[in-house]
Amino acid sequence: MPPDQPLGLGLDVGGTASRWALADRQGIVMASGTAPAASGHIFRPDAAAAFDAMLAAVSAGLNGRPVAGLLAGITGVDDTGPEAAALAGRMARAVGAEPRACALANDVALAVLTRFGPGEGAVVYAGTGSVAALIDRAWQLQRVGGMGHIIDEAGSGYWVGREALQWLAREIDAGGCWPATPLADAIAEQAGGNTWPDLRRYVYSDPRANVAALTRAVIGSADRDPAAADVLDRTAAELADMAGRLLDRVTTVPAFALMGGIFAAHPPLATAVEAAFARRWPSMARRGEAETTDTTARAGQLAAQAAIDGAPWQSVDWVQCGT
């Protein structure tokens, strides 16, 4: 690599973990790593401290490597608010880049931007949260869902775990004890016991992350437990319905992609959502296999390119650049 080849930093800041990659203009990754979880909800001192800890970990991982540009996706960030530009500047200082070459967006926008060009396709994401989104030909981000687990996010990992817990609670109420079924056993194993104190401690010690993690119990028992299979069937229906609300209000795009940990962990769910697309939008093609949302290498490539040539996404209102 020529010594003056610009390197871009792609950063995906999530509520479970954060990931980063330093890449050149051709997309060759020079370094990569993980960092602590964080979010754009820096309204409390502990959340702001978590964000700073994430930045410190990324900076340490870079080990002095020069960063010509930064493109970050941050869960929970209000990418149209003034705090987003301030965060971009804060991140620029942490990694030693010029603020004007650093931009951030919501993690949903980053997932679409690194997968499709404007008008090329829609992304259906299912991980801890859920959302469907696309970038239209006018470079406007169109999205449905993604409003957080308290409001909705049906079809997400949190929703799957909560549905399983509601089933379990009603079974306990009906029978007076913990049921002896594959799904109940899997939940007990993950919760560290099959008593109410065990379940209460597990759920309420970290509600969003621990409830979403129960997706593993549901997926692991779905082939042996009709209750778990029912939860996953309803998950596929919810994700397809979410995509329908997006595509009903915009011009249909030619392709779609499925992203997120749930699709990667349970391929039959991806198959079911793909079948729903085929019935409703037969002209749309699925692009690629279901994948996790490690978009950092492509984001780093885009940041490296934009540092020299500029990029159309830098001027749209859902991307904020540092000042």
List the helices and strands and how they pair.
Blueprint (H helix, E strand, L loop, with lengths): L7 E6 L4 E6 L5 E7 L9 H18 L6 E6 L7 H14 L6 E5 H7 L8 E5 L3 E6 L5 E5 L11 H19 L6 H10 L4 H10 L1 H7 L1 H7 L4 H22 L7 E5 L1 H5 L1 H14 L4 E2 L9 H14 L10 E2 L2
Parallel strand pairs: 1-4, 4-5, 6-9, 9-10
Antiparallel strand pairs: 1-2, 2-3, 5-11, 6-7, 7-8
Keywords:
323 residues; alpha/beta; Nucleotidyltransferase, domain 5; five-stranded mixed beta sheet
CATH architecture of the largest domain: 2-Layer Sandwich
Order of helices and strands: EEEHEHEHEEEHHHHHHEHHEHE
Beta content: 15-25%
The tally of domains stands at: 2
- The CATH class label of the largest domain is Alpha Beta
Oligomer: single chain
Number of helical segments? 12
Number of strands: 11
Structural class: alpha/beta
Kindly report the average pLDDT value.
Answer: 89
Apparent shape:
globular
With strands numbered from the N-terminus, the spatial order across the biggest sheet is: 3-2-1-4-5-11
User: What gyration radius follows from the Cα positions, in whole Å?
Assistant: 21 Å
Runs with pLDDT <50, length 5+?
A: none
Major sheet: 6 strands, mixed
Plain-language structure description:
The chain has helices spanning 45-62, 82-95, 107-113, 157-175, 182-191, 196-205, 207-213, 215-221, 226-247, 261-265, 267-280, 296-309, and strands at residues 8-13, 18-23, 29-35, 69-74, 102-106, 122-126, 130-135, 141-145, 255-259, 285-286, 320-321. With 323 residues, the chain is α/β, with parallel strands linked by helices. Helix 4 (157-175) packs across helix 7 (207-213). The chain is globular and about 65 Å long. The model has no long low-confidence stretch (mean pLDDT 89).
